[in-house]
Amino acid sequence: MTATPDSPRSHYPVAIVGAGALGLAFAARLAATGPVAMIARNAARAAELARGVQIGGQLRRLDVFAPNALPTADWAVLLVKTGDTDAAARLASALRPHGLLSLQNGLIEAELREACPALAAGQGVTTEGAYRDATGIHPSGAGETLLPPGFEDLAALFVRAGFVARVDPDIARARLAKLLVNLAINPLAALFRVPNGALLEPPHRVLLDTLVREALPVLRANGLDLDEGAALSRVHGVARATAANRASMLQDVLANRRTEIDAITGALLGMAETGGFEVPTHRAVHTLVRAVEHAATGTPSDRG
Ligand SMILES: NC(=O)c1ccc[n+]([C@@H]2O[C@H](COP(=O)([O-])OP(=O)(O)OC[C@H]3O[C@@H](n4cnc5c(N)ncnc54)[C@H](OP(=O)(O)O)[C@@H]3O)[C@@H](O)[C@H]2O)c1
Question: Which UniProt keyword terms apply here (predicted)?
Fold first, then answer.
């Protein structure tokens, strides 16, 4: 086991799978009010993290575990990139939790349930943010975290740690509202390599609005009760509020990493196909982002 010498346990109220930007930001805050287990991808990463990691400008030593020596946990929180969902969800199952909560972007609940059918698994939504660079983890201000019904006890743990968090009885709608923003802003920011605010200006604005207008009938058919004006103003509002930010998909492209395009635009394409909707601009954007990924990482551009 790789853990801090003074506080390893065999059982935790909560464990976080995915020791990246958001996972470590959540773990650091949760650790202030109770034990939290951080599950790393492999032993080398666990050993590195156990030596300490800068989170919000402070050196933090968390209880870190490698996959070959896991504790058990009441609740598991999944915070890996969506391309790693399957492997990480199986790892989370080994913690034998009451429930597995994903706070990933995109729509991945079906994949989660397929990966661990014996678990109560659900996908919530968070507007908490964090990024990582060579100096450590930088939490970027407080947001709101919504959990699916059944995760009340975990929501209470979050609240105790100072998060704004609650169970949302209509979590499917919350996921679609976040998907709308992500599928408009993320791919365009990645393709044109611009900060979010630039998408509100020519020449990108027309594409941004086209993506919103094309997606809306599909999302509405799946339960998102927004009219076009409200949908556009929601996306514009996020682009304006995060004008200087680099969207996560842009960060992935710049770092030559696989993006979350399949869980975001790919999820829309799947719903459009099922419902018989035409979404040609999203289809083109999906192909283009995959082509960029292929050039950078060698990931097959025709996967799945
Ligand atoms: N960052 C944000 O502000 C933010 C906000 C809202 C939602 N989200 C969503 O949250 C998710 C995580 O984002 P992030 O920015 O935190 O990503 P990230 O910094 O890339 O972190 C992901 C972490 O998952 C680890 N991982 C990969 N496969 C694993 C496995 N099989 N088992 C255990 N750990 C594994 C990675 O390990 P290595 O370090 O070894 O590669 C990495 O540390 C994404 O879906 C993202 O869209 C992020």
Answer: Membrane, NADP, Oxidoreductase, Pantothenate biosynthesis, Transmembrane, Transmembrane helix
